[in-house]
Amino acid sequence: MSANTFGNAGFSVLLPGARLEGCCGPTNARVRCHLGLKIPPGCELVVGGEPQCWAEGHCLLVDDSFLHTVAHNGSPEDGPRVVFIVDLWHPNVAGAERQALDFVFAPDP
Fold first, then answer.
1. 109 lies in a domain?
2. What GO molecular function annotation could you give as one example from this UniProt entry (predicted)?
3. Element (H, E) at 97
């Protein structure tokens, strides 16, 4: 998805005690792949009211267009929660739709 503004990749670091309340992604044309790198106890992700589980070394696909919350309820000794996130096309978005979205939402030069 690198040809439009909805495609991103990067690290997400959440410190103990941090909480991200109720947010929604900008589009349902993508799914986010979360690769768990460091997942201490007490970390939670709830998407559309359904609890999800990160696991170190495993990918979790998330449709972030649904309301979601993230929390790290662990102690300071646990250290941060770290995941690598990559945006992928939603499998229901056809090739012609992908091309149109890339054209309409091309990043600024």
1. no
2. dioxygenase activity
3. helix 95-104
